[in-house]
Amino acid sequence: MSLNRTCNSSFWTKEEDKAFENALAVFSGHSDKFLKIAAAVPGKSLQEIIDHYNVLVEDVNDIESGKVPLPKYERMQSSSSCRSRSSGAGVERRKGLPWTAEEHRSFLQGLAKHGKGDWRGISRNFVFSRTPTQVASHAQKYYSRLNDNNAKRRKSIHDVTSVGAANITEPSQGQKSDELTGPCGGQSQWPIADYVTEAFDTGMLSLPGSVTNCMTDAIEGPSAVNPEKFPLVAALGSELNSSFPGVDEFLQSVEDLIIVPAEGTSGVCHGVDTRTSPSLSVQPSVTGGTGMYTHPVSLYWQRAPLE
DNA sequence: AATCTCATTAGGCGGGGATT
DNA sequence: AATCCCCGCCTAATGAGATT
């Protein structure tokens, strides 16, 4: 189990874990978030931060794929990331606490996947920290907000109406918009985007809620993990289910699509299969029992060298 | 038919920003 | 500083559908 691995290699105290979680919440949208988180967590190296983050992502993947029961986070007494899992336990809900942007993005993803009305599904699969009733209540205000044309209203979390909107519409840290849209021009002209959409529709690519949120943030620029490459689009940071028939053909098709840049453009698009790219620190996760094997695959657009 | 489960809706309440 | 008003969360009531 990944949590045990973390505890063996690097013990995290309650204070360190809390500092990590707080820093992750603050800096998740930053291109250099790992550096900033490392700075905010005394005594932890950059690599330890990245490892801790990846273990967290991996665990969420396992939980979302149903391989492990939902952990019962004991808010006041948890001493480290070495949390014990009790069978059949539920997630402690964030009663009375304001919705975070992260939760709202998960809500929007759940809304896109399950549709309006399936609050239980959204709660179970996307916004783990909220009950179906809380999700429904949040949705009520969300739709009310959408239908409210009052120009004098204050800014609200409900103003975020798409998962990646904040990142996509407001490139940060001096990043130019053309760097985000890639060598093929705008997103609408990007054949890979349609191809990946189809992959989602057929179930080949999964959209694992909060994991995708973390990956989405990386669209702002190169990360400490991958300083040379930009994620192609937000959704491409998601897991690829290698047990799905035709996954290798999919990867090959991606390569076929993107190795030929559009005319008059520069830069190279390519897929990175982490089965063969150990440089990516996100490692495959293997669980027994069902025989299902999943591994993360990230697809990146690599900028051409500046001339 | 009775009961149970769940989604929806309306309204109350507290917090906090905006205004005076 | 006081007040107003908006925002966001929660709870209770209600209704619809499923189950016994």
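The radius of gyration of chain A is 20 Å.
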